[in-house]
Design brief:
The chain is α/β, with parallel strands linked by helices and 336 residues long. 31% of the residues lie in helices and 18% in strands. Strands 1, 2, 3, 4, 5, 6, 8, 9, 10, 12 and 13 form an eleven-stranded mixed beta sheet that branches. Strand 1, helix 1 and strand 2 (31-34) form a beta-alpha-beta unit. The longest helix is centred in the last third of the chain and has 23 residues, at 264-286. It is globular, with a radius of gyration of 19 Å.
Length: 336
């Protein structure tokens, strides 16, 4: 399988980015780095295929004209470029995550993991920690009742085209956790956990593996807050996975995060739409009638985002970007 690494960054070459580039060279992995309007104009890093705004705007993709500037969702172009390069697996992470050696281990889509189905909301972090910790995006009203690992949970061989790795040090938690609970923290080693039909847990874009058949689900929505784009994507992706018998895998940490500077208060403000609506989104998606089969991934994706637009959670122009991006991805998957 051909792997591709996708990161977005506005920084100059840092030791972390240099480390990724060196590993990419040694492993013959395309490393696609997506910049933005405030990226250094003279960015250069051997082993890194950097895409500044000028290069991005010259791309033939339909979605280029709809993507907002100074926005994390420019990463959508990175996914398209990885597909164009013929990658079978996309690994995405952020520029403040330092990879362990295990980050570069071979990925397999079929995985032996503990299986949860029809478990409702699941606090996956508690499977890997005894701390009172929860992932960003887990509805606050379900913190006290979210499942961890019911007695008798069994291991099975499962199809997991989306795989979320945890992050040690400064894991992906919400602003309320950061205001009230201790950090840093490292997760314990534990068996991988896979969520199937009827089980919900948000996953992020911090350390995530996507296999080619699931590439259409990579789409990051642009008309929500920065702190919700990957979380709301995760709910849509999980819902569509159920139709195909796919499981969402969570596995041991393979990176440690040295978090870039953030305003926790601004993070809190940007997360309010999630605090108020994450559970509602899952409930709305769960009620949709979708079609099984990979040939229906794009149609299911649009139906899910239509539901979020109908709820007033996304602007209707989201569907213009989604349609353009889906058309771009479909064209690339059919020709590479």
């Amino acid at each position: 399988m051909k792997l591709g690494l996708v990161i977005t960054s506005i920084a100059s070459p840092t030791p972390i980015l240099q480390g990724y580039a060196e590993q990419a060279i040694s492993r013959n992995i395309p490393f696609i780095l997506i910049g933005d309007t405030i990226s250094p104009p003279d960015f250069h890093l051997p082993g890194c295929d950097f895409w500044g705004m000028q290069r991005q705007k010259a791309l033939p993709f339909k979605s280029v004209e709809f993507l907002p500037e100074r926005h994390y969702t420019r990463k959508n172009l990175g996914y398209l470029l990885a597909a164009q390069a013929g990658c079978d697996v996309i690994i995405e992470t952020d520029d403040d995550n330092i990879p362990y050696d295990t980050f570069w281990a071979e990925r397999t889509r079929q995985v032996n993991a503990l299986q949860l189905q029809h478990a409702g909301w699941v606090n996956v972090y508690r499977h890997f920690s005894d701390l009172n910790i929860w992932p960003r995006g887990l509805p606050l009203e379900h913190l006290a009742t979210a499942s961890v690992l019911p007695p008798g949970t069994r291991q099975a061989q499962l199809d997991c085209p989306i795989q979320q790795g945890l992050a040690d040090g400064n894991p992906d938690v919400d602003a309320i956790y950061r205001f009230t609970q201790p950090l840093p923290c490292d997760f314990a080693q534990a068996e991988s956990l896979a969520l199937g039909h009827g089980s919900w847990c948000p996953f992020n874009s911090q350390n995530t593996t996507w296999f080619r058949e699931a590439f259409p689900l990579l789409y990051l929505p642009a008309t929500c807050s920065f702190r919700m784009t990957d979380i709301w994507r995760s709910f849509v992706a999980q819902r569509i996975c159920w139709e195909n018998g796919w499981h969402l895998l969570f596995h041991n940490a393979t990176v440690v995060q040295e978090r870039n500077e953030h305003s926790i208060l601004k993070d809190f403000s940007d997360e309010i739409s999630g605090y108020l609506n994450n559970a509602l989104i899952a409930q709305s998606l769960e009620s949709l009638s979708l079609q099984p089969g990979t040939e229906h991934l794009s149609a299911n994706l649009r139906r899910c985002y239509e539901a979020l637009v109908e709820k007033g959670l996304l602007d209707k122009k989201e569907l213009l970007l989604l349609d353009a991006w889906s058309a771009d991805m479909a064209q690339l998957l059919s020709t590479t």
